[in-house]
Every structure is written in structure tokens, then in C-alpha cells.
Amino acid sequence: MAEKSDKIRGGIINGRSTDPNKILPMKYPWARTHYKKGVANNWVPEEVSMQQDVELWKKPGALSEDERRMILWNLGFFSTAESLTANNIVLAIYRHVTNPESRQYLLRQSYEEAVHTDTFIYCCDTLGLNPDEIYNMYNTIPSIKAKDDFVVEMTKSVFDPNFSTEGEANVKKFVHDLVGYYVIMEGIFFYAGFAMMLSMLRKNRMVGVGEQFQFILRDESVHLAFGADLINTIVAENPEIWTPEFKQTLTDNIKRGVELEKQYADDALPRGILGLTPGSVKQYVEHVADRRLERIGLERFYHKDNPFPWMSEIMDLPKEKNFFETRVTEYKTGELDW
How many separate domains does the chain show? Predict the structure, then answer.
């Protein structure tokens, strides 16, 4: 019976995209695992108190100009990047990934992207920021625009309404775009920002915004794990696409993404602040890129140590809050091997 079901449902792509969501029996239990981890991580931005942030942000001289720049640059990038990632899921990836349990996770991820988008609305409203300035930085800040443009260009195949994943060439295009979205956009382009904002949290400065980024990072770790499993499964089911030339193309794209993220780090953090320098952030991005490369079966390139071991600690520790300040929110998942 299981063999018959597998033949009806096919692989993770190229099934019947409009059939009822026949999620049982499951072929890919890892997709269900990621879904359950996402549910266990549930949160909304209003759970986080922002009172201290408001006082610090409005107090003259409480934050240096470099700190304020770093915060604004990251709010500007993430505010539109999250909606860009949501568009990738809803308008493109969901249409082509036809496996039911994988689609169930994509629905969960879509919700999380909506929460992330709402988080930056909440931060802008609470801090009294100019939304025209923040939400237009993807046009006005060259280093942010370069990252967004790169991802849009890399994921254009799946947005073509006539695109299909049938055939070797199209499967390659789909994997190419998935690497652009999951590995480069979510796996590299977010991580200089995470390091910057969470360094503020470690210093007990702008802790509300920092905690929001902490929650987003933990969500993204599950997104990354799902994306890698999705890519690896497509490759395993279509091994003919995994040629040396294709692997080199993907590696080159990831390396280009690293360079764009390093340029962004220089732009958002031109002089450095206490405990954080542009050089250390760029080293962290290279370290992260090697982990991304290995996770989808490609060779490491940078061979750099992690300059911020505390990033893993931030992900691992449960979230504890004062009962009278806000309701308890605790993540229930352990570290993911990304």
C-alpha cells in the first residue's frame, strides 16, 4: 500500500498541485518535524515590552550615531526583506512543491513571515520612526538595494507563470532559485544583521528590538533546515542535475552573496561599536556561508572560525521574562545543525 501511495504522489515536486492535501501517509517525516518545531516556537511581537527601547531611543546621546545607524539600517533591510521572502513562498515555492507535508510546513512558514513583517511595523510604530524612510531604504541605500536586487534576479524563474519543474533543465532552475531564496537570502543576507542586533541585546541596550530579532533568528533556523532538506531531497530524487558545473554555479552564487553581505556590513557598521567590528561581522558571514555550503553538499570555501560563539548561546537558551512585564514565552526546540 505504501509503495502504491508513493507512486501516486510522486516525489517532492511534480505531483498534482491542486489535489486535496492528502497528508497521510507521509513520505517526508522531516517536513512534519520542522512544522512541529515552528508551532513550538510560536510568538507575536506584542509579547515583547519596548518601553526601555523607547526611552533609550528618545534620550539625547544615549545611543551613539553609529549605533543608531546600525539599528536603522537593519530595520530598513529586514522590513522589506521579510515581505520579499513571503512572496517567494506564497507566489512561487508553494506552487511547485506539491508534496502535502512540505506544503503544510510552507503554510506555517508563510505565517511566520507575516509575523516578522508585523514585527517591523510594531518596532517602527513604537519607536516613532518615519515609515517612508524605513520602508524605502531598499531603494535609497545602495547596499540594501544590491542584496534585494540579487535575490530577485536569482529567483526570477519560479515567478514566471509559465515555469514548470518538469524536465532536468527546469529542475535545475528550481534548485538554483531555492538556493537563492533559502541559502542566500535567509541563510546569508540575514546574518550580519542578526549579529549586529543581537550584540546590542547582549549589552542590554535596545533589548526589545533585540528580543524581536532573537525570535526571528530562531524561526529562521527552522526555515533554513527545511530549505536544506528540500534542496537535498530534490537533488537525491533527481541526481542527474548535480553536475560539477551546476555545483560550481551554486557555489559562485553563494560567494557573490557573501560579498554583498560584507558590503552591507561595512555600510551599516562603518566604524564598529564596542565589541563589534566590521571585520568580525564579515568573518562571521564567511563562517556562516561555509556551513550553508556544507549543508547542501558543497565544499567549504572560507575556512573561518566563528568569531561570535555567543550567537549559538542566544539560540539555545530558553526565553525567560518577568511575569509582571510580559507573558512568558519560551522556545522548546534545541539547536539545529546549520
Answer: 1
